[in-house]
């Protein structure tokens, strides 16, 4: 398994994937997990430009509008875990106010996400 950092940036991820394609022959990549949707969309663009998008699937994180558009194409970008930034900031503010009042808060606060795929993207409301 090869790990490369796209720095959460679409353009850097395109370039990074181009480099990865030089290291792995056609058919040598099964999947790409991107730490955010811009990186995933960048990987998708690079795969399509190299004619290698049919050999792999790509998954991102965020539920961003660009990922939604990529999912609707029903090509190599197959899923994103949708986070809800407005809900996240509300929760962060609520917890922050508790801290300011001297209340104890949990050391780990899990925030639910939804898996958005090509099959359910049409029902995803987005951010």
Layout of secondary structure:
Layout: H1 10-23, E1 31-33, H2 37-49, E2 57-62, H3 65-72, E3 77-82, H4 85-100, E4 114-117
Parallel strand pairs: 1-2, 2-3
Antiparallel strand pairs: 3-4
Helix pairs in contact: 1-2
Describe this structure in words.
The chain has 127 residues and is of the alpha/beta class. The protein is 40% helix and 15% strand. It has helices spanning 10-23, 37-49, 65-72, 85-100, and strands spanning 31-33, 57-62, 77-82, 114-117. A four-stranded mixed β-sheet has the order 1-2-3-4, with helices on one face. The chain is elongated, with a radius of gyration of 17 Å. The mean pLDDT is 95.
Biggest sheet architecture: 4 strands, mixed
Total beta-strand segments:
4
The radius of gyration computed from the alpha-carbon positions, rounded to a whole number of angstroms, is 17 Å
Helix content: 40-55%
Uncertain stretches:
none
Strand content bin: 5-15%
Overall pLDDT metric: 95
In terms of structural class, how would the helical and strand content be classed? alpha/beta
Oligomer: single chain
Shape summary: elongated
Query: What order do the SSEs take from the amino end to the carboxyl end, as H and E?
Result: HEHEHEHE
